[in-house]
Write a structure and sequence with these properties.
Elements: E1 4-10, E2 43-48, E3 62-64, E4 84-89, E5 92-96, E6 104-109, E7 115-119, E8 150-157, E9 163-167, H1 173-180, E10 198-204, E11 207-213, E12 240-246, H2 252-266, H3 268-271, E13 275-280, H4 289-302, E14 307-310, H5 319-332, H6 341-347, E15 353-354, E16 365-369, E17 372-375, H7 378-386, H8 392-404, H9 407-414, E18 421-424, E19 427-430
Parallel strand pairs: 1-3, 2-4, 7-15, 9-11, 9-12, 12-13, 13-14, 17-18
Antiparallel strand pairs: 1-8, 2-7, 5-6, 5-8, 10-11, 16-17, 18-19
Bound molecules: guanosine-5'-triphosphate (GTP) and magnesium ion.
Residues 169-175, 187-189, 191-194, 215-216, 280-281, 283-284, 312-314 line the site of guanosine-5'-triphosphate.
Length: 432
């Protein structure tokens, strides 16, 4: 059972802005007309009840959102890419492990419809139209699109069980879990075989649900007798309880009643969780009448409305029926987290959006060496990448823009003087 996965997410790059001029008769260069690039798509996770496992995130999975298109002539903005929306199971934690180690928790998708922007798409670059001003009618600058974010993330799924298997030791709870899911709990003919809870995913038609098997309960469990007490908390949030009882032992009704009383004493809410009575080991019944007689007794004791199933994990008698009944009961109950208007709004895409905090503002300039400086201001870098700085007239405009961005001031504060070497992206020029 996969409950953890490590994948790469790549947001789309923004499209480049372009340098372009309107064509007019007798005018060598009409007004600037270079359009902006479109935005790159983001990778967005949405918590959904339609997925229950992380199985689709196989090792080496790369989720890659599309790139924005470059700008066009006549001020046409390039098309933005759609966000890549990926459904993940409710209860998925997203850890950024790009920097190694345990990583940083960037989101916890615990409610249906909650969204997390895992990697933000790059913004489109400005075309030269955006750089026109009263003093510069022929702007030669354009920005390259911003690169989309790239992250390594680990997904952790905190499995919340839908159905809890409860009952006295040796009733066959672990045998049931092993029979209906791929889980391999320890099974043995003595009480207290199960020492801690185990989970299994049960696939039914196109759906799946999670079942938890806990250690056997005995009288006094609520106050710490036996092993069960410590584990009752694991069934507090299950939506259905399957109460397993060994039908071949005497006093079936009494044993069911004892356990129910323990649940009530532990937490009154547990006593009202919908329950299904599962009478196991019917292969050991001596006469056919035993089943009918027990059925009557259980209904007389716990009401006509209670569902009683007779099964045998040994012969698999009634097992399909058991799965179908668990599914039916779950279907009749509200989905976990689907109560409340806030989550309903979230399901409609208007709910809270979790977004990783952007890093604090970074510096614009780095000192590389004595008298060598690098401009790292993101907009300046994109401008350098999107413009032809080999042309001195473009370089002049670029330097003016650096001053507007406040980069010049920082360069000077860092010690740049006439003749210093300034590097931006993969270009190098002398400062003056
Ligand atoms: N004859 C028969 N034996 C069964 C059946 N189901 C389970 N058993 C046996 O009953 C014993 C107990 O089964 P487990 O599944 O370990 O019971 P449990 O309820 O998980 O027990 P604890 O973990 O101790 O609480 C094992 O020896 C099983 O092989 C059944 O349908 N028929
Ligand atoms: Mg067990």
């Amino acid at each position: 059972m996969i409950d953890s996965a490590r994948i790469t997410v790549l947001a789309g790059n923004g499209g480049n802005g372009i340098v372009n001029f309107r064509r007019e008769a007798f005018v060598p260069r009409g007004g600037p007309a270079g359009g902006d690039g479109g935005d790159g798509g983001s990778v967005v996770f949405v918590a959904s009840t339609s997925v229950n496992t992380l199985l689709k995130f196989r090792k080496g999975t790369v989720l890659h959102a599309g790139d924005g298109q470059p700008g066009g002539s006549a001020r046409k903005t390039g098309a933005s890419a759609d966000d890549m929306v990926v459904e993940v199971p409710i209860g998925t934690e997203v850890w950024d492990v790009t920097g190694g180690g345990n990583g940083i928790l960037i989101g916890d998708l615990s409610d249906e419809g909650s969204r997390l922007v895992v990697a933000r798409g790059g913004q489109g670059g400005f075309g030269n139209t955006k750089f026109a001003s009263s003093t510069n009618q022929t702007p030669m600058l354009a920005e390259a699109g911003e690169l989309g974010e790239e992250r390594e993330v680990r997904l952790n799924l905190k499995l919340l069980a839908d159905v809890g298997l409860i009952g006295m030791p040796n009733a066959g709870k672990s045998s049931i879990l092993a029979s209906i899911s791929a889980a391999k709990p320890k099974i043995a003919s003595y009480p207290f075989t199960t020492l801690e809870p185990s989970l299994g995913v049960v696939y039914f038609e196109l759906d799946a649900f999670v079942v938890v098997d806990i250690p056997g309960l005995i009288e006094g469990a609520h106050s710490g007798v036996g092993l069960g007490h410590e584990f009752l908390k694991h069934i507090e949030r299950t939506r259905v309880l399957a109460h397993v009882v060994d039908g071949a032992e005497p006093e079936v009704v009494e044993r069911v009643r004892t356990i129910n009383e323990e649940l009530r004493l532990y937490n009154a809410r547990l006593a009202s969780t919908p329950q299904l009575i599962v009478v196991n080991k019917i292969d050991l019944f001596e006469d056919a009448g035993q089943r009918e007689w027990l059925d009557d007794e259980l209904h007389a004791a716990f009401g006509d409305g209670i569902t009683v199933l007779f099964i045998s994990t040994a012969t698999r008698d009634g097992m399909d029926w058991l799965i179908a009944e668990m599914r039916r009961m779950l279907e009749q109950l509200p989905r976990r987290g689907s109560e409340g208007s806030e989550t309903v709004a979230a399901a409609n895409g208007t709910g809270p959006v979790l977004r990783p905090q952007p890093m604090g503002r970074k510096r614009s300039v780095e000192v590389v060496d004595k008298d060598v400086f690098r401009i790292v201001h993101p907009r300046a870098v994109r401008l350098a990448r999107g413009s032809n700085l080999d042309d001195w007239s473009v370089l002049v405009q670029f330097q003016r823009r650096l001053s507007e961005l406040g980069v010049t001031k920082e360069l000077e504060a860092a010690g740049v003087v006439n003749g210093s070497t300034v590097i931006v992206d993969d270009m190098e020029f002398d400062w003056n």
